[in-house]
Structure prediction request, 568 residues.
Amino acid sequence: MKKLLQSKYGWIYVVVLLALVNMFASQWHSRIDLTAEKRYTLSDATHRLLQSLDEPVTITVLMDGDLPAGFKKLQGSTRDMLQEFKEIGGSNVQYFFRKPGENLDDSAKMYLLDSLHRLGINPTNVKAQTKSGEGEEQRLVYPGVIITYKDRIAGVDLLQGQSAVDGLNSLNNAEALLEYKLAGGIDKVKREKVPVVAYLTGNGEPLQYDVYDLIERTIKPNYGFSILPIDSVSVIPDVFNAMVIVKPQFGFSESQKLKIDQYVMRGGKVVWLLDYLYASLDSLQRSEGSFIAFDMGLNLDDILFKYGVRINPDLVQDINCAEIPLKVGMMGDRPQMQLMPWYYFPLLAAPNNNPIAKNLDYVMSQFPQSMDTVKAGGITKTVLLSSSPNARIISTPARVELNSVKTEEDLRSFTTPFIPVAVLLEGKFNSLYTNRISSATKDSLEHVYKSPFLSASANDNKMIVISDGDIVTNYVSQQKGPLQMGQSAFTGYQYANREFFLNCLEYLVGNPGILETRGKDYTLRLLDRKQVEAHKSFWQMLNTGLPVLLILLFALLYSFLMRRRYSG
Prediction:
């Protein structure tokens, strides 16, 4: 090597060698993931998705320019994730970072904002230091991604479903969900055949403005959609990949339940959103502060019990709850209103690491009932949503009152933890109607289906049962029209109801491997503030003095070696 460098053309060889090394390094990229949660390791499902691209997918990230520290970190993590995508997908993955609204006038910015809103991307208003560093200013950040593939386009809000209160934890969760969000967006625009969701009617299910957000803004932009009057068909067609049953008001007949049962036996997926008791805030207002919640008589106990779950005719109260305006006094002849905790509106969370509800903000419920899992052979039951550790059950007949909690003693009665409100059922379901229907009915079904009556599902199937239909309904504002599901009409806070429902549908009919990536954890390893304050001076001295000391020691050692070398 020494001879090579001393030769006439040695420097040319060195330059060529460095160029070759650099070229090789630019073409080959790899890293070892040493994180405990494997945050930089992509799932097999993501690998398969990216390798299956037959045309370029373009990913435009709306985070560029001068960003606050937390969003800067999210930007860097997004860039790293997309680089990993490109390593797998090659030239079929193209990504860019843009600053939305740059060099646009006010009218153009408003049009852009409206366009992004239609794609499901909403800006976040954050505080950041001014360029001078002397104060703070409000900035709009668009934590979103636009994905285009062929003639299809999808928007991804990286903060959707995250708490607006805990900013640090929300950004951390957003990083944890990056693979799911990006891969899910690509999967969405890549689908050639979109799953079809049926909305069952015939038993008083709502179809007005209170389900506008569910139908028009949630299901239709993501899936095929059809309203299915159950009495208009002899059987539920298997063209529907999933079916949602939302807040029926009247009891189901045996013929109706048989249709649902055979749909399930033949692989159909169902999301049940049921109110067993008649209870609503409107009823409370009309009754001047008190009413009795009564059983709706839906006649679904036997079929749900057969599948592995029971909804109890009671009401759940929780200290962790949403707020509603209540009268606290009078000012002259006008009532004084104040936002107060309303224990009948529990804020639900995931009690486990199931990917459907993990890393989501709270889901707001209204008058939910408790649920029990029951023995059903071959069925796995997973609780998706439950109350907080500080809840209680009000048995029927349940009197609902505005002043439902009057004393400190009442508050101490909230001792029942983690009451289930949503349950996932998976496995081979058994039919409720085995040995219960006539031969004529069996023959009729065989004639329609072109196959015999099924006493059990041929393959593993899954369904989700939720004991509160209002999780997917929305308030209707006189000024703004239909709000989003999960948005409080009184505080304006947006809970994660929509994201939870979409995750339910995606788990039932989507790419299961992609959804599993929601299970990732990003652990925030923060410093102990008390320890930092206690030992701050020591570490400041160490960080300042140690480098100086090392330089002095190196200088002394070098001086000693030089003297020793040349002294003799």
Observations:
- The chain has three domains: 1-30, 40-189, 193-519.
